[in-house]
Design brief:
Length: 287
Amino acid sequence: MQIIHTVSDLRAALKNQSSIGFVPTMGNLHAGHIQLVEIAKQHAACVVVSIFVNPLQFSPTEDLANYPRTLVADCDKLAIAGCDIVFAPSVGEMYADFDGKNLNQSMTILPPPIANVLCGATRLSHFAGVATVVMKLFNMVQPSVAVFGKKDFQQLFIIKEMVRQFNLPIEIIAGETIREASGLALSSRNGYLSDAQRIQAAQLNSALRAIVHALKNGARDFLNLENNATEQLNNAGWEVDYISIRSSLTLQPAQSQDKHLVVLGAAKINNNQAGKTRLIDNIEEDI
């Protein structure tokens, strides 16, 4: 496995590859990431995993400085998984006008209005930062296939739209969410939680599963289902950003005739060591 830090070295290493599978990450890898690598290996001769904590998608109040950076451990996991190339660029390599403090990225991808709801309602400009860095990485890696996890469902939707609307020759493949036995979705942010808090954190998935169960049993008062789940989580000590039932095809609010649904949630759980840890989850279900 090669570990590459510059775009010029990356392009040289990939020049003669017949097909390239790509998994973009911010590092601090867990089993969910490794599953994405395994999916990519099934679709391409050469698999590239990028590890880059992207400043452009963090607001000034978010945890950029404290985001876990575990490159050595990540590379060990990727080598075992059969990754061919790890691309771990510096901020200056990713952003040509970076002056040591400011990115100065004046040209960015403007995502569709769906980026301004759900997670985008409280994380302003987040998805513009995600779309911009993913477009940059796509240009650097030139993959035929890219694999993203379903846990970040809104991100996956926006990336698919970007690829479709910009006519990029890349197949986007979605990897299923990997969970702990409790139902808690694997996430780098789970590392902020104690064992007791991880047990409590599974309540978010339980709330979403309860909504899915109700939908399967014919419930169609979506607002009532959302409000009840929000109230239950808030009463259990959470700070809920949103619980939302949406069309999985458009991400618009679900209508009674919709059959392809996704139930999404984002909420903050109190963490005595790191303040409030924001977790997201979703369940996609055909009704």
